[in-house]
Amino acid sequence: MSGVDGQAHARGREHAHAHGVQPGADGRWLAVAGGLIVAFMCGEVVAGIVAHSLALLSDAAHMLTDAASIGLALVTMRVAARPPRGGYTWGLRRLEILSAQANGITLVLLAAWLGYAAIRRLLTPQPVTGGLMLAVALVGVVVNLGATMLLARARRPAGSARRSLNVEGAFAHVLTDLYAFIATAVAAIVVLATGYTRADPIATLVVVALMLYAGAGLIRASGRIFLEAAPAGLDLAELGSAMAARPHVAEVHDLHVWEITSGMPAASAHVLVAAGQDCHGVRADLERLLAGRGITHATLQVDHVTREPHDDAHGDLQAADHEDGHDHARLHDSDPQASTAIANKGTGFEPHCDDPHGPRYRATTASESAQE
After folding, report:
1. I need a labelling partner for 263 at 20 to 30 A (CA). Which of 134, 153, 295, 360 fits?
2. Is residue 276 in a domain?
3. What CA–CA distance (Å, rounded) separates 258 from 301?
4. Of the candidates 300, 295, 297, which has an alpha carbon nearest to the alpha carbon of residue 283?
5. 256: helix, coil or strand?
6. What does the DSSP 8-state code read for residue 367?
7. Helix (H) or strand (E) holding 304
8. How many angstroms from the chain centroid is the CA of residue 335?
9. Phi, psi (5° rounding) for residue 335?
10. Are 179 and 297 contained in the same domain?
11. d(CA 238, CA 146)
12. Is the alpha carbon torsion for 74, 76, 80, 85 positive or negative?
């Protein structure tokens, strides 16, 4: 094994360790937060019935989904940590995204139900026991502050740069519940001070809006991962141009960047290297560039070109065999669909890429050989 290949192999082992789930790191905080929420939820159901408060009962229903989301996050975390086997070459890491999407959908559905109940209460006001409502709401604020702090620690465990969208979903549930108790406390004060009982369903509608916002955000973020979109905030055109601007790179095409799971981006690309240059060195340089942008899982196909691109619009690039046995490729500037490859050297051509995607990136400078 060459020195470069050995270094790449070592980096692969480091990446595998970096993405492993730390046993108990997230689970400990999630379990404590879940127990705290379940204990308070049971008392809140009783208080809501006694006080005739829809806001308290809606908070209790929301806390039930909080507990369910935390339980789902715990189970998903353990399953996703299992090593890859069989046809699941990445393991079951995307279960985290399924969990996050389930949390988002439950938030939206629960918001719809609470919104309907709140509108009914607005049309037909009900008597509310403001004192009990205020006491329970203030205790709820304290309990949810504690649960939020615990989940904040679980979102990004010590020594890990990866934020789990799975835990993010549970955190969104508990955070909106904290806002809900604050709104309920304000509504209770209004009821005590003025006797305006419609403050109770109005507070519920405020909570509904927060739940819809949090749920839609989770559905959108998880949907991007399922659709294999580039990570949010990544400028793919800028990345392609940066790769093409590296020394000895003649062209980069078929560049794809996606996320396996939250905080775990991957990339693939076909790179044409200037004739006579070291493909291994270029690949290692591009891997460092990608790693510097958080993309540590990269698959780069590298080929030599027989000559550099000319300024004329009808020039072409030809990718030649090198010591790794890569296919020849003939690339036409005027038509990305016209790429062809030599199946057997000197015998004929077959399509190099049956379904090419995306633009081709080339350095704006002169050819590498002219610079050296």
Report:
1. 360
2. yes
3. 17
4. 300
5. strand
6. P
7. strand 297-305
8. 35
9. -150, 105
10. no
11. 42
12. positive
